[in-house]
Specification:
- The chain is of the alpha/beta class and 165 residues long.
- It has one domain (4-154): Uracil-DNA Glycosylase, subunit E (3-Layer(aba) Sandwich), CATH 3.40.470.
- The protein has helices spanning 20-25, 32-45, 70-87, 96-104, 110-113, 131-136, 141-155; strands at residues 4-5, 11-15, 53-56, 91-95, 118-120, 123-128.
- A hairpin with a 2-residue loop joins strand 5 and strand 6 (123-128).
- The radius of gyration is 14 Å and the shape is globular.
- The structure holds uracil.
- Uracil is lined by residues 15-19, 22, 28-29, 33-34, 56, 132.
């Protein structure tokens, strides 16, 4: 499951790995977490899913939804790097711990990565919570809203006032 979206996208969202629905459809973030991601893209950015590019660290679904193994990540990262180099987005949003840790080659906890100026291949990276985590614990939605505001600033997009996504 390679990824999909606009080839002129200014923002690229990077998740962990395809889940069951993504594996079946060949499309990223189309299950329940994907529906929340769509709402974040629309509600907090004023964009449509077709305006952005969505990919994952791992191109294949780890059995039983376990975390990707280091050798699996190593096999997939060169493809992601090429995707980033072709798109050259103005900002990358790392969704969740697995994306953040593998993109940034760090083990720093999520709480310390959020809100920091980070880069991947020279492109600004904003770390935020994975939408599947937000579905389990909606109390962090406000923080995701704040993170997406940073993305809007990086893209030079207007501030969107409003409720949590
Ligand atoms: N979770 C992810 O990290 N990626 C997907 O594509 C779907 C769910």
């Amino acid at each position: 499951m390679f990824g999909e979206g606009s080839t002129t996208a200014e923002v690229m969202f990077i998740g962990e790995a395809p889940g069951q629905t993504e594996d079946q459809t060949g499309r990223p973030f189309v299950g329940p977490a994907g529906q929340l991601l769509d709402r974040i893209i629309q509600g907090a950015m004023g964009l449509q899913r077709s305006d952005v590019y969505i990919a994952n660290i791992n191109k294949c679904r780890p059995p039983g939804n376990r975390d990707p193994e280091p050798d699996e990540v190593a096999a997939c990262l060169p493809f992601l790097l090429q995707q980033v180099r072709i798109l050259r987005p103005k900002a990358i949003v790392a969704l969740g711990r697995i994306a953040a840790h593998n993109l940034l080659a760090t083990q720093t906890p999520m709480r310390a990565l959020r809100g920091r100026d980070l880069q991947f291949d020279g492109i600004p990276v904003v770390v935020t919570w994975h939408p599947a985590f937000l579905l389990r614990d909606p109390s962090h939605k406000r923080e995701t809203w704040d993170d997406i505001k940073r993305v809007n600033r990086l893209l030079g997009r207007p501030e969107i006032p409003g409720p949590t996504p």
